[in-house]
Amino acid sequence: MRIVLPALLSFLICGVHARAGVPQTTLHHRNFFYVGAQYVKQGDSTIMEGAMYVERLTPQHVTQPFPLLIIHGRGMTGTNFLNTPDGRRGWGDFFLSKGYEIYLIDQPARARSPFQAGVDGPQSTFDTYSIESRFTATGRFKFWPQATLHTQWPGNGSMGDPVFDAFYASTVPSLISEEETSVKMKNAGSSLLDKIGPVVLMTHSQAGALGWVLGDSRPDLVKSIVALEPVGPPFVNAIRPPVGPARPFGIAEIPITYDPPVSSPGDIKREVIDIGDSSLYTCFQQAEPARKLVNLMNIPTLVVTSEAGYHTIYDSCTVNYLEQAGVGVDHMRLEDVGIHGNGHMMFMEKNNIEIAELVEQWIAKTNAK
After folding, report:
1. Which residues form the signal peptide (predicted)?
2. CA-CA distances (angstroms) from residue 281 to 31, 122, 239, 275, 325?
3. Which residue in 205, 217, 224, 316 is the catalytic one?
4. Is 177 labeled as catalytic in the residue annotation?
5. What digits encode the pLDDT tens for the residues 38-93?
6. Hey, which residues does 203 pair with through a beta bridge?
7. Which pTM was predicted?
């Protein structure tokens, strides 16, 4: 039997991809496994619930000290980071090319992480109007002042456009209850960290709250956090419905560790502050003296905000809340570093690799300390 050497195999794979019109990819090994599952009674027998799908991508040469664990946002899956809806190179391949091992997950009760009827709570699905108005064609709807600056989505962002159709086809139903999601993710995510060891944790949107929960649950195993437009602002939902109370523990739906300790959400006294355009949302911080998020204080954190996404309205409020609670945060506003026109799905947009390069530089610098 003739053995194909890795370099030749890489050449053959890339050659096939090039002929098929697919971007060349970094040579890597792929496998998958599940964590977090437990057996529960159903009728006269037993089923398994809470199992979370984990996809492991290992480049031919791992050169970075910690793998990258990426958690997608609401209605999405780990496929967000494999390639873009128009077939360009995604963040997954970019970080593989930089020597990072990558773990991609599907949140519990979603996509390849089985949803169990009668055990898991109700689900909801993003309709096309929600996707167009919030993510892909924001300039047409103008729901926030910066929405008209959105120029980086590939295609016109509307139903019937091939890129939009490809993206919308990748969306999936999600659990309606963010509290239920947080509990399931804390269980499965903590089990994953115990299995694979220390990581750089990257979250997007809804997963921002899950990142704070995992950092709090396993502070010694989360070496740094990159939060791409993390869900916010503290204590309330804004811009996107349902607008109203949310995240009763400030940045999380379920208890996280404060000092002095918090026995119930009412222990966290809050006050309104003015950051940004307060006519579009209510920004809260803690009333002084502020409790400290002691398990997150030693985890370096980067919050990334696009120029045109709805998070540009209130991410500063989330950053302020973290800083007041003792967390060391760098806030990268893309327009401040010369990157313009991006929206909430920045890692899929036309200049996605340019953004990835800046994020990777922060990760490399932070984890070299």
Report:
1. 1-18
2. 43, 28, 7, 10, 21
3. 205
4. no
5. 999 998 999 999 999 999 999 999 999 999 999 999 999 999 999 999 999 999 99
6. 71, 227
7. 0.93
